[in-house]
Design brief:
The chain has 272 residues and is α/β, with parallel strands linked by helices. The protein has helices at residues 3-15, 21-41, 45-60, 68-75, 78-86, 196-203, and strands at 124-132, 143-147, 168-172, 178-184, 189-190, 209-210, 213-219, 226-232, 251-252, 262-264, 267-268. It folds into 2 domains: 1-42; 74-268, Protocatechuate 3,4-Dioxygenase, subunit A. A 5-stranded mixed beta sheet has the order 3-2-7-8-9, with no helix packed on it. Strand 7 and strand 8 (226-232) form a beta hairpin.
Amino acid sequence: MNEEDAVTAAVLARMGGCPEPRARELSTALVRHLHAFLKEVRPTQEEWMRAIQFLTATGQMCSDHRQEFILLSDTLGASMLVDAINNPTGGLATDSTVLGPFYVAGPPELPLGADIAKGRAGEPMRVEGVVRGPDGAPIADAWMDTWHSDEEGFYDVQRGEQPELNLRARFRTDAQGRFHFRSIVPTFYPVPHDGPVGAMLLAQGRHPFRPAHVHFMLGAPGCRTLVTHVFLEGDPYLESDAVFGVKPSLVTSLDRSGPEPVLRYDFTLAAA
Ligand code: BEZ
Ligand code: FE
């Protein structure tokens, strides 16, 4: 055995005694793939130190309002791969996509019809639809958290001067499973790119933009919680989302036939 393979074998042998089977599987697979990567790309000492500095900077960028590691996972396609493994498309349930870093648990619960875009100057829109269960029947009292960026492409938590929660809420469906609320038309926006992930995107010759979308997280007793977005047809970044989150079934057109644009989307939840 050559010297390089002997290092890999020694590490794997040491981990062979790991008592917990899943921890052993994860640890040994990580070492096999990490060592194979290093043997393929053959980093210099300086390159390996830069890699360690990159991961260090990624951790140091994290705060209560910024999760650079989620952003790294998203921009490397890892988040969507984990999503595909756990929520394969093709069933009756609505497709899922990335959670993203801007979800705030426990948003204000508002009555149906409320306006979630307090004081923002964007184009008003109505959002409406029906939430159905695995049998196709509408679900009364399903909970739905929604959040999205403003007309300039920023989330409330990114705006220092607007600390209160805005453009986000929890709604509950009515007796016919329907929901509706008012907001403003979102626009495409860049993922935060002033940190290590932004430097990585630049080095890779990639743009940081996500196509316009509204986030939803929905649930009901006996159903799996669904994390998804609805994207707007016609957005210039639908084909090149920086985080690979677009699925064709999640793209819809704004209905502009009435006095104001309507974003209409029906959701179907899978069984728990
Ligand atoms: C978002 O849609 O909010 C988002 C998702 C992934 C990375 C950054 C932002
Ligand atoms: Fe978003």
